[in-house]
Amino acid sequence: MKSTNHRRGFTIVELMVVVAIIALLISLLVPALASSFASAKATQDQAQLRGVMAGTLMSSQDFNDKFVSPDQICRRPYTAQSTPGYMWGKGDRVINWNSTESLVSAMIMREYLEPSAFVSPVDSNPYVGAKGQIEESSGIAIPYNFDAWDPVTGTFNATGSPEGFWDLSIYCDLAPNSSEDVDHNSYANSTLCGHRLKKWNANEGHDRITWSTRGTKMGAGIGTSDYDNCPSLTMIGEENHWKGHMAHGDGSVSVETSFIPVLHYSPARGLQVVDNVFDAEFADEYFMPSSGTAQNCGAADNFLTFSNNGYASGNASQLFPGGNVLDSYLQSRCTWDIDCDDSW
User: Fold this and answer.
1) E strands within the chain?
2) What is the DSSP letter of 273?
3) Is the pTM of this model over 0.90?
4) 202 contacts: CB under 8 Å, gap ≥ 6
């Protein structure tokens, strides 16, 4: 009798079991892959911030061990010559433009870093991107304008504008209702005013924070609305807990989970004190010589901000009385406005 062999396929039940096993494997793998991907981006961000610090350290070779700062470049005419004009390293320095965006633009103009170095791979703000990438509004790439360098003309108007010293279309504003589409930097920097500016140099140590992942408004802590609703919490840390990277004056980059990674020596108190690096809490350490009035942001403590020159939003507040360096936005330093999320 001739036998016939029939090839049997999967039954419905067997197929359902296979599908269930695959679904289970996917449910186990996806979180692991997501966590691995997030960890890789965080590692890349740490390396990128180390690169920003390396460019900052490199700049000290051109400024007698001081780090590059806008006021080192933007100077009034040097008058101790037959015809007053611009001379490198001479002339009165103008601190009016010591904002984050001026610092970033000056570093790019001097070619210490490329524009892409300032944009973090973990930045979750949709309004942050490298200068030279395709702009949403125009659909074209607008590169950094190296032809903006014209200090001979710029020096005579240095008090009123830094035009001629760097590209003014580098923005660090973060206001969602501002007129420009893209901001060009992810990191907060040491606020370059008061005694803090004197410590912006290559001779400082681990207790001097230079660059950092953006924090909360004025260093607001856990349990406050400015902390709990802060978008920067999602960049590296958990959804409800800030985690970031901080570059130190000695060139190292640390992983931090609080705003008080170092102590600050307070000359007014004569001892080491806790220092919230996103808050200017030592106003009594710096006084205007003419009036004796304490200046809110003039001390030597670590105070990191994300500041601008007021070009983009037209709606900002001054970081310190009588100065031109402005908050990133009225609602928030070092992050972006938490009240306008719905408009995105």
Assistant:
1) 187-190, 209-213, 244-248, 253-256, 263-266, 271-274, 304-305
2) E
3) no
4) 57, 60, 65, 66, 67, 249
* DSSP secondary structure letter of residue 308: B
In this structure, the dihedral spanned by the alpha carbons of residues 247, 248, 249 and 252, taken in order and rounded to 10 degrees, is -80
**Torsions phi, psi for 307 (to 5 deg):** -115, 170
Task: Locate 328 and state its tokens.
Answer: 């990133």
In what helix (H) or strand (E) does residue 269 lie, and over which residues does it extend?
A: none
Q: Using one digit for the tens of pLDDT, what is the confidence trace for 47-63?
A: 999 999 999 999 999 99
Tally of CB atoms within 10 A around 159: 13
Read off the amino acid at residue 127: Y
- Asked if residue 323 lies in contact with residue 159, where contact means CB atoms within 8 angstroms, the answer is no
Compute the distance between CA of residue 101 and CA of residue 197 in angstroms, rounded to an integer.
16
How is the chain split into domains, by residue range? 35-343
Residue-by-residue DSSP string for 68-135: P-HHHHSB--B-SSSS-B--TT-S-B-GGG-SHHHHHHHHHHTTSS-GGGGS-TT---TTB--TTSBP
Position 7: which residue type? Answer: R
Q: Which residue has the higher pLDDT, 327 or 170?
A: 170
The burial of 155, by beta-carbon neighbours within 10 Å (0-12 exposed, 13-18 middle, 19 or more buried), is given as buried
Instruction: Give, as one character, the DSSP assignment of residue 191.
Output: -
Beta bridge partners of 212: 188, 246
Q: What is the pLDDT of residue 4?
A: 55
User: Six-digit token pair at 238?
Assistant: 């958990």
How far is 267 from 285, CA to CA, in rounded Å? Answer: 7
Using DSSP, state whether 246 is helix, strand or coil.
strand
Tokens read off for 258 = 């609080």
Exposure string over 315-337, b if 16+ CB within 10 A, otherwise e: bbeebbeebbbbbbbebbbbbbb
For residue 189, give the DSSP letter. E
Structure tokens at 98: 């010591």
The count of C-alpha atoms lying within 13 angstroms of the C-alpha of 37, restricted to the half-sphere facing its C-beta, is: 6
